[in-house]
């Protein structure tokens, strides 16, 4: 309800006599870095946080007609590396003499060094408390303030959910895929009731081995091109499980066609693009040959997302593999009698992995690269040559230290035990998670 009121109030002036809080939200369009979206999400954590601010504050949404200079405080939700880049660009527009106090939060937050360019304070993790105390200058274990930690050397806790928002049936995931921040940074609530977050799935969406394949539309993920990779990253999906599941699904192809969208993370540090993709397509081919033709087809759309070493996960310090992983959009990858496999129009490129990694691994001494780096992103985002071009803006010593572009030949796959040992030590430290610069 509070979020709806905020939406209606977005274009009204601030209440006279109250402290002025502007809420700034960016969508994910890196080629529109200076544009503030005209709409604001009705739900979500940011809307809930804004709804909890006390009556002594007047809260408005920053739009083209309400600029940051009119605010005493600017609250910003960073949902991605793109939105971080947007904020860096946006703050350059703000008149320094009328600059509001900038407090950032959101799922992208992980390090303080990069934030020091554009924010005065940051709240790490889930913010389920009224912000009044923080706006008034109070301290919190999850709060970084530039004035108190200008060199960004402090340790901060990753705040965990205290309450469920109205749209939430649960938080976190009980599975432990090693690449997935959601399971490692957000506690899984209500475990006694099972995986309640499944309620948040859309119709037809679920884990690969749990989704109802009798439906005409299925949405799921396998997150690894090969069985070896899936087992290494804790996905625990064998080729045999893929085959058995698809064969079971195929029994409905006599009644109706099935359209499945499957997310696949690829370009893990140890992967090799052509052979690993061939391995996955081989599974689909073997199922297709076993079916001997069906009345309708199973159409599989694979959406390839380039692996990036996400913060707070056991894979946080893995390398970014820049092998030849760019897979064309809407390509037919396999066309059999019962199964058609193609790529979607939304495959992510190594570009996103590079940007995320640079933003989260930068140290204070590296901040000079941010401006030319963001300028390079805006100029070359759509070009195929972007990765090479973008990397030319980063000195080789930095690429080496950030572990971007490690040659595939030198990448060694960690063993299953090593990965899970890392996971264990990571979990042990979760209660006092440090935010490293
Ligand atoms: S990737 Fe794995 S851990 Fe993350 S939400 Fe999916 S199943 Fe859960």
Arithmetic mean pLDDT: 81
- Please outline the major beta sheet: 6 strands, mixed
Please give the order of strands in the largest beta sheet.
2-1-3-4-5-6
Shape: globular
**SS summary, helix count:** 13
Number of domains: 3
Q: What oligomerization state is this entry in? A: single chain
Order of helices and strands, N to C? HEHEEHEEHEHEHHEHEEEHHHHH
Bin the strand percentage.
Answer: 5-15%
**Spans where pLDDT lies below 50 across 5 or more residues:** 1-5, 191-198, 428-437
Provide a short characterization of the protein structure.
It contains 13 helices and eleven strands. With 437 residues, it is an alpha/beta fold. The protein folds into three domains: 19-145, Rossmann fold (3-Layer(aba) Sandwich), CATH 3.40.50; 169-202, no CATH class; 217-415.
